[in-house]
Amino acid sequence: MDARAELVLAILEACEEEGEDVPFASLLEDIACLRPRLAPLAKRLAARYGSLPPRVALAMMARDPAWRKAVREGSSAYLSSPR
């Protein structure tokens, strides 16, 4: 799994824990701290989508050609992981 898909998976996992109560920028900040390897990508996403609710940011990412494949891969990994 590439870094973008891994970041999407981390976002989905964080949303499961935190729900919609946490701003997307805050989720990304937490992910950047917990997974330093993903920090540069998380910061770029925060600059572009950080002001949006997580569900809206993920929907916008799914429509963005640069993120579409990663959203598909990260979502698939999330849905196939045991809970």
When the domains are counted, the total is 1
Which ranges are low-confidence, i.e. pLDDT below 50, for 5 or more consecutive residues? none
Biggest sheet features: none
Class based on secondary structure composition and strand pairing: mainly alpha
Order of helices and strands: HHHHH
> What is the overall pLDDT average?
94
Share of helix, binned: over 70%
The count of β-strands is 0
Distance between the termini: 20 Å
> What overall form do the CA principal axes indicate?
globular
Strand portion: under 5%
Radius of gyration, CA atoms, in whole angstroms: 11 Å
Please, how many helices?
5
List keywords for this structure.
single chain, 83 residues, mainly alpha, 73% helix, 0% strand
List the helices and strands and how they pair.
Elements: H1 3-18, H2 24-34, H3 39-49, H4 54-63, H5 68-80
Helix pairs in contact: 1-5, 2-3, 4-5
